[in-house]
Specification:
Largest sheet: 5 strands, parallel
CATH class of the largest domain: Alpha Beta
Structural class: alpha/beta
Number of helices: 8
CATH architecture of the largest domain: 3-Layer(aba) Sandwich
Strand order of the largest sheet: 2-1-3-4-5
Strand content: 15-25%
Number of strands: 12
Order of helices and strands: EHEHEHEHEHEEEEHEHHEE
Shape: elongated
Radius of gyration: 19 Å
């Protein structure tokens, strides 16, 4: 099981993150002694660290430097600081990514999975079946119908993978926009709409009942 260490002094947010991650099968551990984060790190041996910058005693930048002395474990900053200089400093100190508060938990999940894949070649799932003839393979982001691959673009594969991982929950447009930013396509709000329409057109041929559903004002989901 993938272990994630949460270093966040906002108890409500920390517990919310922990419960969300546990729901998705992660072993999420909270740090409560902010005077000695390294003691918790050595005890937990996490695969990834979620690290706030504004902490009691020493800030997250300090603890990131301490962790980097003994480990290359992925570190994602979660912080209310929104100045570009702070973000640059955070990454320069050894962080792998930065999330500005407030953020959607679904976006955090996407970032965690992307970093875990890069760091450990970790796959969240191998395959999910939608019916007896239709399934999606996560390791190749490929959709198969009657064992025949369905031709999807890079953007369509990324969107479909995000929807599959969250199934049957709604994935917000903001989260899907973040997914598209990692492709080679120019991204705008209309870009996402276009990709969704294109993807729906391909899926409706093999799944007439409509696989991708819209939650008005929120986002999309696969029922």
């Amino acid at each position: 099981m993938i272990r994630i260490m949460i270093v966040e002094d906002d108890k409500i947010l920390a517990k919310e993150i922990r419960e969300f991650l546990k729901k998705w099968g992660y072993d999420a551990e909270l740090v409560t002694d902010f005077s000695n984060v390294m003691e918790a790190f050595e005890k937990i041996h996490p695969h990834l660290v979620l690290l706030d910058i504004n902490l009691p005693f020493y800030d997250g930048l300090y603890w990131c430097r301490q962790i980097r002395q003994i480990s290359e474990v992925p570190i994602i900053y979660i912080s209310s600081r929104n100045d570009d200089r702070d973000k640059i400093m955070a990454i320069a100190q050894g962080g792998d990514d930065f999330m500005e508060k407030p953020f959607h938990l679904e976006l955090m999940k996407v970032k965690i999975e992307a970093i875990l894949r890069r760091a450990y070649q970790y796959k969240v799932k191998d395959r999910i079946y939608l019916n007896e003839e239709l399934y999606f393979e996560y390791n190749t982001s490929t959709l198969f119908f009657q064992d025949r691959e369905i031709d999807l673009t890079k953007s369509e594969k990324k969107i479909l993978a995000s929807l599959m991982e969250a199934k049957p929950q709604v994935v917000t447009r903001e989260t899907l926009m973040q997914v598209l930013w990692n492709t080679d396509e120019f991204v705008s709000d209309s870009t996402l709409t276009t990709v969704i329409c294109r993807l729906r057109g391909k899926l409706d041929v093999i799944c007439p009942e409509g696989m991708i559903q819209t939650k008005k004002g929120q986002g999309y989901y696969i029922k």
